[in-house]
């Protein structure tokens, strides 16, 4: 595992976007697993900049991690809307195929099977992840067991209250979501996990160094051999300094 600590979300986002760019430039048909949430916005902003500078997305396939159940694609808090709004809107080149689970599907079991067949058809080269304050990845919530494949998840009260900041009222936050399973995430060739802020420090330290536990889903990433943790100094603050060197990138390079 690699841990890279940055002094600002902007510089961390630039670094994350450069890892995605490398995959886009070097692979014949790059398949990117994409995430939502405030953390990845810095990466998407930088990636948009690269596309405006000529990076071609037209051979790329994108597969998103998750979606709320019951929010139509045009709802401003749906992850369909988030992806258009923060990454794809008005770009000079768009991915050739883009997939996000359909949270409005009449039959959710059929939708889960459909999504798994997409992941099977397009094995993910690089999976971008955020992390919940409770250690969730995608919407794989802490539990006594974890699902390997795409499934319906009942969001924990903690996740509902954390995500309520994006909705008018906490009652408006959907209680269920569709999420890619942990096995699908771990099958990606490379994983990039981004986390910023003090609120994530505990989950990050436990996931990087603690026991592998189903009640801290991000700890499963210890089983993967190519994970890059992209942190800021606050989200890295509960990790012993010898784990990441104790020097944030860029703050050390800036006079
Ligand atoms: C949501 C998403 C996760 C994301 C998490 C962190 O719950 N389903 O994929 O990692 O939020 O969000 P944020 O980056 O806003 O802290």
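-> sequence recovered:
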């Amino acid at each position: 595992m690699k841990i890279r600590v940055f002094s600002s979300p902007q510089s961390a986002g630039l670094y994350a976007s450069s890892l995605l760019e490398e995959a886009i430039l070097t692979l014949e048909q790059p398949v990117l697993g994409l995430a939502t949430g405030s953390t990845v916005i810095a990466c998407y902003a930088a990636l948009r900049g690269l596309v405006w500078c000529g990076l071609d997305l037209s051979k790329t396939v994108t597969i998103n991690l998750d979606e709320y159940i019951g929010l139509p694609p045009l709802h401003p808090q749906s992850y369909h809307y988030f992806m258009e709004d923060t990454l794809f809107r008005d770009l000079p080149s768009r991915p050739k195929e883009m997939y996000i689970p359909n949270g409005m599907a009449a039959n959710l079991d059929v939708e889960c099977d459909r999504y798994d067949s997409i992941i099977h058809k397009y094995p993910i080269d690089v999976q971008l992840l955020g992390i919940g304050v409770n250690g969730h990845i995608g919407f794989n919530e802490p539990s006594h067991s974890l699902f390997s494949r795409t499934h319906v998840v009942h969001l924990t009260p903690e996740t509902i209250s954390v995500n309520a900041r994006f909705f008018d009222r906490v009652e408006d936050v959907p209680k269920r979501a569709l999420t890619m399973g942990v096995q699908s995430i771990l099958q990606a060739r490379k994983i990039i996990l981004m986390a910023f802020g003090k609120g994530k420090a505990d989950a990050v330290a436990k996931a990087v160094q603690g026991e592998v536990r189903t009640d801290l889903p991000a700890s499963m990433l210890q089983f993967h051999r190519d994970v890059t943790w992209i942190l800021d100094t606050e989200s890295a603050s509960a990790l012993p300094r010898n784990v990441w060197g104790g020097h944030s990138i860029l703050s050390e390079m800036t006079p």
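The first helix runs from residue 9 to 26.
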